[in-house]
Design a protein that fits this description.
Distance between the termini: 58 Å
Radius of gyration: 19 Å
Largest sheet: 7 strands, mixed
Order of helices and strands: EHEHHEEHEHEEHHH
Mean pLDDT: 89
Strand content: 15-25%
Structural class: alpha/beta
Low-confidence stretches: 201-207
Shape: globular
Number of strands: 7
């Protein structure tokens, strides 16, 4: 197997420093790096701390203005070979900061990208949030979510079962990154996806801007 270099991006919506959400993401990244190294690969890890760009996310939500900080985060995800998306759970769902960030992303940004979903909470009552609340959102974004999701309540940190789940999710992510699925989709089948107008910067749509309908939509007149 040839040596490959993968870029892993952690998206952490933890609000404290340190946070259990970031800790879960870091543990997962460490296992991904170790498992990839055994297979002859190198993994570089980047981190997007959403609490540091919370104002930028709010600005994008209400005005569609993408600030340089938010654009930097978007660019990191665009270049990522794999993602660990980690959120704290409030009121039986991932935090608003987490969902708001993914709400402002272009719908085409993450097509086919491998993603491990991770959630933390103060009680095990929220153990299904990653699968019941987060997974549908990432399905809408058309990502390749790893079959194993991660969840940690306070009692889980000392339970060996958490490390077992992290190992399982890490193996799945490494194998998905090795497959190069996202790049193959873009190279071989991008035109078969339904893209919104302006998606991916408007560069990968096949909309005829000179049609009668488009001229009418932009305030002109039909020929």
């Amino acid at each position: 197997m040839s040596t490959e270099r993968f870029r892993l991006v952690l998206v952490s919506a933890g609000t404290s420093d340190p946070s259990s959400t970031r800790l879960l993401a870091d543990r997962t990244a460490d296992r991904v790096k170790a498992l990839a190294a055994r297979r002859g690969h190198e993994v570089t890890v980047g981190v997007i701390e959403l609490r540091e760009i919370s104002a930028d996310i709010s600005t994008a939500l209400v005005s569609q203005l993408v600030t340089p900080k938010l654009q930097q985060a978007i660019a990191a995800l665009a270049e990522a070979d794999g993602v660990v998306a980690a959120a704290p759970v409030y009121k039986a769902g991932p935090s608003g900061l987490f969902t708001s960030f993914f709400d402002v992303l272009d719908n085409d940004l993450l097509i086919g990208k491998p993603v491990v979903l991770a959630a933390t909470a103060g009680t095990a009552r929220h153990a299904l949030v990653a699968d019941e609340a987060m997974r549908p959102m990432f399905a809408y974004l058309r990502t390749m979510t790893a079959p194993t999701s991660l969840f940690a309540a306070p009692e889980d940190w000392s339970d060996p079962a958490l490390n077992t789940r992290i190992d399982r999710a890490a193996v799945e992510l490494v194998l998905l990154m090795e497959s190069g699925f996202a790049a193959k989709i873009k190279d071989e089948s991008w035109q078969n996806y339904q893209h919104e107008y302006g998606s991916a910067g408007g560069s990968e749509t096949a909309i005829d801007l000179d049609s009668d309908m488009m001229r009418l939509a932009t305030g002109g007149s039909a020929s």
